[in-house]
From TrEMBL, chain A:
It holds the Pfam family Med20. InterPro entries: Mediator_Med20 (IPR013921). This is Mediator of RNA polymerase II transcription subunit 20. It comes from the Eukaryota. Component of the Mediator complex, a coactivator involved in the regulated transcription of nearly all RNA polymerase II-dependent genes. Mediator functions as a bridge to convey information from gene-specific regulatory proteins to the basal RNA polymerase II transcription machinery. Mediator is recruited to promoters by direct interactions with regulatory proteins and serves as a scaffold for the assembly of a functional preinitiation complex with RNA polymerase II and the general transcription factors. Its main location: nucleus. PANTHER family: MEDIATOR OF RNA POLYMERASE II TRANSCRIPTION SUBUNIT 20, UBIQUITIN SPECIFIC PROTEASE HOMOLOG 49. Transmembrane segments: none annotated. Belongs to the Mediator complex subunit 20 family. Keywords: Activator, Nucleus, Transcription, Transcription regulation. Component of the Mediator complex. It is found in: Nucleus. The keyword Plastid does not apply.
TrEMBL record, chain B:
Belongs to the Mediator complex subunit 18 family. This is Mediator of RNA polymerase II transcription subunit 18. Pfam families: Med18. It comes from the Eukaryota. InterPro entries: Mediator_Med18 (IPR019095). The gene is MED18. Component of the Mediator complex. Component of the Mediator complex, a coactivator involved in the regulated transcription of nearly all RNA polymerase II-dependent genes. Mediator functions as a bridge to convey information from gene-specific regulatory proteins to the basal RNA polymerase II transcription machinery. Mediator is recruited to promoters by direct interactions with regulatory proteins and serves as a scaffold for the assembly of a functional preinitiation complex with RNA polymerase II and the general transcription factors. The lineage of its organism: Eukaryota, Metazoa, Chordata, Tunicata, Ascidiacea. It is found in: Nucleus. Keywords: Activator, Nucleus, Transcription, Transcription regulation.
Length: 201, 217
């Protein structure tokens, strides 16, 4: 449970998603990262049948936190709950219903490289793949501002010119927030972007 | 998570199990409460009864197009500050079924990391009232027995909550026997009824049709 950066990795031109993933995995392995199991981050979104409530509720399940679920409103409150969240929401289904096409997940290989954890996932909605998600975690630190430079350096090694120029907005807005919350929020943002991108296509 | 006092309230598995709760309720005047405690001490598991003081906020969510609304309770222990907030969905009470010896409600409890008020409000819930229950908790195998005094807090907002400024709502204690079981498994109902008989005549535990009480209000 350290500081985490999540972002979409743009596939180089002329390659498909599978080739892109392999390229990224090769890069990680060349650096010396060791394969260490699989991971999955799932997101399910709900909307209210009440026309006055336009908010979207996102729930996240992250295999890194197997006994927790995260519930979050866009630009609103955030809660960490236990596994009963899904059952609870199913009881509210007269008002809160799963969005059509609201299930999206990132699934793939997890690597460990010293204190870093690298996760390379394929983002998919049902049967269709949407893109590649890269997650980098620096496990020993709990304060994003203290280790951001170290993480940027690592990101440059890993994804070169796609490394971020500055601290992601989600982290910059609340650097003192719960780290699991920051990870979940970054995934929600990533999933939203990929959903929008596929709608515009 | 490594904190020794961390007790996850539900494990990783069994997240989609549908549970029903059988229960019976009754009340005892404050004057006879010691007799009831004595009886419970005798018939329950031989462990010290647990004292509890819980805040309980009741929220309602109205369903568009329907007259019924969804009830959810947000609970927090006052005397165990490290225990998490809980959200409890409490389904409609089935009391009318004469073949069942106890009342039934579905019950889903979710432990949450922080005060869920804002989250519930964003879901559309409206806070109706807040009470504090102070009492003792006994157990016997599967059964949970609570004997609690209903206390009212003058200020409803979290900021004005003061455990020392609570007033008793009435001159009796609420007694509840409950047992969780899987759907369509009615064995627990019989267990609840049998236990209830052991409390007579100090407390009469009966099926109460809550809808009738509400109609008379």
């Amino acid at each position: 449970m350290g500081v985490t950066y999540v972002s979409q990795w743009n596939i180089p031109e002329g390659k498909n998603i599978q080739q892109g993933v392999e390229e990224l995995q090769n890069k990680a392995e060349k650096l010396g990262a060791k394969k260490c199991g699989l991971f999955v981050v799932e997101c399910e979104s709900f909307h209210s049948t009440n026309a006055q409530n336009l908010k979207t509720l996102h729930t996240i399940h992250n295999s890194e936190y197997p006994a927790s679920r995260f519930a979050c409103f866009e630009d609103g409150s955030f809660l960490v709950t236990d596994v009963m969240l899904g059952t609870f929401l199913s009881k509210l289904r007269s008002v809160w219903q799963p969005k059509k096409g609201g299930k999206i997940e990132s699934k793939g290989q997890r690597y460990e490289f010293g204190d870093f954890i690298i996760k390379i996932g394929i983002v998919s909605m049902g049967p269709s793949t949407k893109g590649i998600a890269l997650e980098l975690e620096y496990a020993p630190c709990r304060f994003p501002l203290d280790c951001w430079e170290l993480m940027t350096e690592m990101l440059h090694e890993l994804i070169d010119d796609q490394a971020p120029a500055s601290l992601p907005q989600v982290i910059a807005q609340k650097p003192d927030a719960n780290l699991a919350e920051l990870t979940a929020l970054q995934y929600i943002r990533l999933f939203n972007n990929l959903r929008k991108a596929s709608m515009n296509r | 998570m490594n904190d020794a006092s961390y007790h996850p309230l539900s494990a990783d598995s069994a997240s989609n199990v549908n549970l029903q709760e059988f229960f019976l309720q009754g009340s005892v005047l404050d004057g006879s409460i010691d007799k009831l405690f004595g009886r419970l001490q005798g018939i329950c598991d031989n462990v010290k009864p647990e004292m509890f003081t819980d805040r309980e906020r009741t929220y309602y969510l109205s369903t568009p197009g329907l007259t019924t609304s969804v009830m959810v309770k947000a609970c927090k222990s006052v005397i165990q500050p490290s225990a998490p907030w809980q959200i409890k969905y409490i389904g409609n009470i089935e009391a009318a079924d004469h073949t069942k010896p106890a009342m039934i409600r579905s019950n889903v409890t979710v432990a949450v990391s922080q005060d869920p008020s804002q989250f519930l409000e964003e879901l559309g819930f409206i806070l109706r009232y807040e009470v504090v229950l102070r009492g003792q908790f006994y157990r016997k195998g599967n059964l949970k027995v609570t004997v609690a005094k209903l206390l009212l807090n003058s200020g409803i907002a979290a900021s004005t909550f003061d455990a020392t400024k609570l007033e008793a709502a009435n001159t009796s204690h609420l007694v509840e026997i409950s047992a969780l079981s899987l759907m369509r498994d009615d064995g627990a109902a019989e267990e609840v009824r049998h236990f209830a008989q052991l409390l007579a005549p100090i407390a009469m535990m009966e099926k109460v049709d809550h809808r009738r009480i509400q109609m008379h209000q």
